[in-house]
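Quick question: what would this complex look like in 3D?
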Amino acid sequence: MLNISGIHEGFVLDHIKAGDSLRIYHDLKLDELDCTVAIIKNAKSNKMGKKDIIKVECPIEALDLDILGFIDHNITVNVIKDDAIVAKHRLTLPEKIVNVIKCKNPRCITSIEQELDQIFLLTDPEKEVYRCKYCEEKYTGR
Amino acid sequence: MRHLISPLDFSVEELDKLINLAYDIKDNPAKYAHTCDGRILATCFYEPSTRTRLSFESAMLRLGGKTLGFASADSSSAAKGESVSDTISVISGYADICAMRHPKEGAPLVASIHSTIPVINAGDGGHQHPTQTLTDLLTIHSLNGEIKNLTIGLCGDLKFGRTVHSLITALVRYENIKFILISPEELKVPSYIRQLLIDKNIPFEEVVTLDDSMSKLDILYMTRVQRERFFNEEDYLRMKDFYILDKAKMALAKENMLVLHPLPRVNEISVEVDNDPRAAYFKQAKFGVYIRMALILTLLEIEV
């Protein structure tokens, strides 16, 4: 049994689909944070069989978790303060996603101006459709 | 400060005002001849254009203003790799208003974000062309008397035809408009346009043959297959003569149907149709100057 100690302040991202944790690590830009991050892969789960978990020891205002709603609604976000869970966040689809996914339209201005922010807007919450702010191309997956 | 990037940047009421202003300019040109004295329009055209660029320049000159600009990316700093945002930041200091055409979709939007002067989208890739839409709306209003209760057929390259995308986007807000979208399978409207029609509950059908729809149409909007948007010449050659409007097809249409075309045409309208009283595309081109004059005055907030 692998033991990873609890955290004093930060987040526990639970119920991540097995295999997705490294992608989330990069999407949340955890590699840019100077703090302790534990990635647990293939943990046993009664509900999911296998799951990934990410624990982040950081001030709770340091992370923007909006993007998680776009990646997977089913992730549970536990907010930890003073060694205790103080909140559980329900994830919703963010209205806007910045610099997480890229527009694939070869005619889009972002294809030649690399310094532009890659901005996608939620245009159909029911069907979870995101479109590039510049060319309106639909995001169809990575 | 306002820009015109998408047809939705103006409400229907504002479009009505613009159309009325264009009529007044057409009827009383002397009244407007010096309204832009001392003002400069920059025409930043990174892609070839005849009508749009010259009609913008004509519009500004007829208002008493002056123009400067470039007519291809090769003759601008874009050839040296300058970004759109840097270019517009500089041009903001040289001119009072800017009309921008760019082969990349979203470029005028990027410019508007970094600009301190009004930016007009004069066509961005295969995306939008809102000032052509203003021209189209003025043409329909002038020749039809109103913009409602119309079955509009859009025929040809509906995938890359930016004038089609802008016109549909603008028209969904008018009363009782139906669309028949006539195109080869490969050149159907992009999904965001189809989604718009579904979201707004606008009746539309997508068909391949033109003949079957002719008798239903109040307006037939023909478009050119956009050679410059194809990455493969073979695909273009296969599509380019898919539709040719000729006398025989016109015989199937209503007596008062209007044929519009944003021009330039290639083969999609036979020259034998030009003399048909229902052919309105050359009149349409003339309206482009008046509506652009109205647009320049409106964006510069000049009241006459």
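Answer marked as accepted. Chain A has two domains: 10-89, 96-132.
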